[in-house]
Amino acid sequence: MKGISLRKARTLAPADNDPADLRPAQIDQMVHVSADLVDTIWEVFAGTDLPENADRVRVLLEARREVHAAWASAKQAFVEIGRALNALDDALHTKAERDALQEGFSRLFPFSAPVASQFKRVAEMIDSGRVPIEDCPGSYSAAYQLALLPPEQIKVARQRGLVSQSATRSQLMALRQELARRNPSTLDLAGLMAEQRRLKEARRKGLRDLIQIRRRLREIGRVLEHDEKG
């Protein structure tokens, strides 16, 4: 059984934005859409016939639902990763152990030490109560930018609507730069130093990878040259 178009759903959507049913009540899978979302779809697909096609609207809404669910799971995952790594840090007894882990991190885990430090910083922000997990940005890189803000600047971010799941890395970076220009004394020196270390480590890794690539290219070149001569 087919559904109804967004044009019909729009006429059914109440002014107070209560959920509006896009399809008949007797079908086995119900999709409820707010009036705001109906309007958003019309705006996004203005000039196309997609909003009039119930089947394609259904595919769009199902994709949106699945992406949002996966995105929420991803956020929970990177927070849990950060918590596990913070617990690991607490279990390391000596500087030699911490240095060894830093050096060999990518041999033990599926991401680099710089990325790990971002996960850890975000988890610390959540577990310290500065930002509830439901308000944490869905992207770990955006969440990390939020975690770099001291508590008084997180209040500013909240006033700007940037303590939310939809906040982006670029928005939060722009806020940090604005606040730093306004009051240089509030610079997060520890955060900047940590970021500097991560960038240097990423640069070192990039150089090591480049050396390996060049070495492998020379080896391949010698093999091909020998084959041509043979």
What does it look like?
Helix 5 (113-127) packs across helix 6 and helix 6 runs parallel beside helix 8. It is extended, with a radius of gyration of 25 Å. The protein has nine helices and two strands; from the N terminus they run αββαααααααα. It is mainly alpha-helical. Mean pLDDT is 80; it is low at 12-30. A two-stranded antiparallel sheet has the order 1-2. The protein is 68% helix and 2% strand. It has helices at 6-12, 35-44, 54-91, 95-108, 113-127, 140-147, 151-159, 169-182, 189-229, and strands at residues 20-21, 32-33. The termini are far apart.
What is the string of SSEs from the N terminus onward?
HEEHHHHHHHH
Helix and strand composition category: mainly alpha
**Rg measurement, Å:** 25 Å
Low-confidence regions: 12-30
How much of the polypeptide forms β-strand, as a percent range? under 5%
Number of strands: 2
Distance between the termini: 69 Å
Largest sheet: 2 strands, antiparallel
Counting DSSP H or I runs of 4 or more residues, the number of helices is 9
How are strands sequenced across the largest beta sheet? 1-2
| Helix percent band | 55-70%
User: What is the global morphology?
Assistant: extended
